[in-house]
Amino acid sequence: MNDDWEKRVETAWASLDTYGEDGAAEFRALVDGLAAELPDGDPVGAFERACAWDSTGRSDRAVPLYREALAGGLDGYRRRRTLIQLASSLRNTGRAEEGVALLTPELDAPSDELDDAVRACLALCLASLGREREGLALVLGALAPHLPRYQRSMGNYARLLVEPEPDQVSGRS
Question: Is the pLDDT of residue 171 over 70?
Answer without folding.
Answer: no
